[in-house]
Amino acid sequence: MAEETLNTEELGEKIVRVLKTIFDPEIPVDIYELGLIYDVFVNEDDEVKILMTLTTPNCPVAETLPKEVEDKVKSLKMVKDAEVEITFDPPWSQDLMSEEAKLELGML
């Protein structure tokens, strides 16, 4: 059981590393630091579900960004499948950004 927890934790860290390689094209900060990723779920079958949002509902990358997230997470060896669910509840705000993102954008 402890090994499963470790694998899930390790996989979660790998997923976060992958998410940090995906950038919002309008903002030079990765989607993880921007606070667009609300949750990452990994089940015992190594299937991943990512709950994320976009900066606005009519975001120009609304069609491509979730697909890019899905494809990059699926490319991890340990991942059997990945699904992205978009939500606007709660709506994204600058408060969700990490300190690093705010610093990068000159907001601190």
Notes on the protein architecture:
It comes from Croceibacter atlanticus (strain ATCC BAA-628 / JCM 21780 / CIP 108009 / IAM 15332 / KCTC 12090 / HTCC2559). This protein has 4 helices and 3 strands; from the N terminus they run H-H-E-E-H-E-H. It is of the alpha+beta class and 108 residues long. Strands 1-2-3 form a 3-stranded mixed β-sheet. Strand 1 and strand 2 form a beta hairpin. It is globular and about 40 Å long.
Which architecture does the CATH hierarchy give at level 2?
Answer: 2-Layer Sandwich
Number of helical regions:
4
Class inferred from helices and paired strands: alpha+beta
Distance between the termini: 43 Å
- The amount of beta strand, in percent, is 15-25%
Shape: globular
**CATH classification class:** Alpha Beta
Strand order of the largest sheet: 1-2-3
Unreliable runs:
none
Helical content class = 25-40%
**Biggest beta sheet summary:** 3 strands, mixed
Q: Give the topology string: H per helix, E per strand.
A: HHEEHEH
- Count of discrete structural domains: 1
What's the CATH superfamily, by name? Fe-S cluster assembly (FSCA)
Overall pLDDT: 91
Number of strands: 3
Cα-based radius of gyration, to the nearest Å: 14 Å
The CATH topology is given as: GMP Synthetase, Chain A, domain 3
